[in-house]
Amino acid sequence: MEAELESPPPPYSRYPMDFLKPTADCPDAVPSSAETGGTNYLAPEGLSDSQLLLEPGDRSHWCVVAYWEEKTRVGRLYCVQEPSLDIFYDLPQGNGFCLGQLNSDNKSQLVQKVRSKIGCGIQLTREVDGVWVYNRSSYPIFIKSATLDNPDSRTLLVHKVFPGFSIKAFDYEKAYSLQRPNDHEFMQQPWTGFTVQISFVKGWGQCYTRQFISSCPCWLEVIFNSR
């Protein structure tokens, strides 16, 4: 998929909400969006930076983005002020957060292979009904967000989004109303409801060999400003 620097985003197809409901099993070939996620992993460095950026009274941005390769964060946090942000790997795939410009010491062949597949990446767009993620790349992305699931569910699901499709990854109203008394992760980290995790190409969770996102080669942590 090619993306012109000056061209508008392509006409993405939105997954209907019925399509996003969990399935009984873990299909491999079908576009399933309900691969179970397991326990969330957030490294301490990212969280401390996030807390710093989300101090009361700081309204200069609506979210910050961190790029990770396995358990290591690469580069600094990217503050987002514009209503839309392209996150891609190689110039000139768009205007925004170019991951290819960050300095990484990771020599893993798998990480390098996944990097080469990020391409046009994704687009984050803040709309009236929430924040949408558009898959502009040629490979699936995987998303975990508290607002994508039933408030009564005990675990967060990992949703698979195919190229050319989009998903409402974050809903502010749902995030404010989230109450997960049985969710140890949510109780330990109350800002988890305002965090979305996105992995390029590789999924994680019960249906995969990777149980935690920290085992994924290339992934993003998006922290939304709750104010």
TrEMBL record:
SMART domains in the record: DWB
Keywords: Transcription, Transcription regulation
Cytoplasm keyword on record: no
Pfam families reported in the protein's UniProt record: MH2
InterPro entries tied to this protein: Dwarfin (IPR013790), SMAD-like_dom_sf (IPR017855), SMAD_dom_Dwarfin-type (IPR001132), SMAD_FHA_dom_sf (IPR008984)
Cellular compartments per GO CC: heteromeric SMAD protein complex
One Gene Ontology MF term: I-SMAD binding
Gene Ontology BP, a term: regulation of transcription by RNA polymerase II
Domain of life: Eukaryota
Keyword check for Metal-binding: no
Gene3D superfamilies: 2.60.200.10
Protein name: SMAD family member 7
Underlying gene: Smad7
